[in-house]
Write a structure and sequence with these properties.
six-stranded mixed sheet; alpha+beta; Creatine Amidinohydrolase; Creatine Amidinohydrolase, Chain A, domain 1; binds zinc ion; 20 strands
Amino acid sequence: MKKIRIAKVRQKLEEKGYDALLIKSLPNIYYLSGFTSEDAWLLLTFHNNYLLTDFRYLEQAAGEAKGFEIVRVDNNLEEVLAKLTLNLKIIGIEEDVITWAEYRKIIKALENQTLADASAILKELRQVKEPAEIETIRQAVRITDEALAEVLGNIRVGHKEEEIALNLELALRRRGASGKSFEFIVASGKRSSLPHGTASGKRLERGELLTLDFGAKYQWYCSDLTRTVILGKPEPKQQEIYNIVLEAQLAALAAIKPGMSGQEVDAVAREIIKNYGYGEYFGHGLGHSVGLEIHESPRFSITEKQIIEPGMIMTVEPGIYIPGWGGVRIEDMVLVTKNGVEVLTQASKQFIIID
Ligand code: ZN
Ligand code: ZN
């Protein structure tokens, strides 16, 4: 599989007229080589695959990165890079990943070469998932659903948001997750109007909305799930907002088809929320791709022109957030198929009442 991926990278390099690609992003390094630690660089030329790393990782790199020549670097990255790129002219780099300090080293080492941003190459390559990747993500979603069911069963008024976040993480790890795919959002009451309200020391009170947004890191792949529940009987307004968000979410799920642009998909949910008069309270995009990273491209957003293709794995997560009152978000992960989507997330979307 990695050989095919590397061949695709070379094809892109050829199209762009670049002689090599220098990669620092950990997910990209893993995607192309299988190497799982940090402090490494990949250099792909038309004839060689190099993995540059220091003494600590030499043995691991040799075991994991099959088909790569492992090059030892001991505080002499400039020297090593200069040597390996001696006869090359244009080198692609990842401008959104490397630090300023790394950039200074690179331009010193490659003073005779031209640098060009090539971050789009891997971004595009990783958009459509291979069957094995889809299976791994399916499993990540499954354990996320199970973790939610377990934790919801134990939530009571008086619990702290932080305890719930910890319980979610434990439930995921007990099911094989290596960790969390992002900092969990556990936001209750008025805090639920914070789309990214990470768990605090606040205790749950009766009558409050509670939004849980969390996910697993499972065999290097991510999952992402949001549910909003109610602690006790919902007030009419809470029920109304929940129904609108759910209607928008279901409409988007039903509408997605390959060939639509990200903005067309976004508009389906946004129109519904707008028509109910809450457009200004849905301030983020409808969804994003998920893979080795929690937020990948393409997106479902008002500006996304990219066309949706089968094999992409996306979230669909409309929300309404009213400052000082609270908010509701419902998020599923879907696999784009030939005719529409397969909803991977199985967790119930009924307005769950926790009493
Ligand atoms: Zn999420
Ligand atoms: Zn998300």
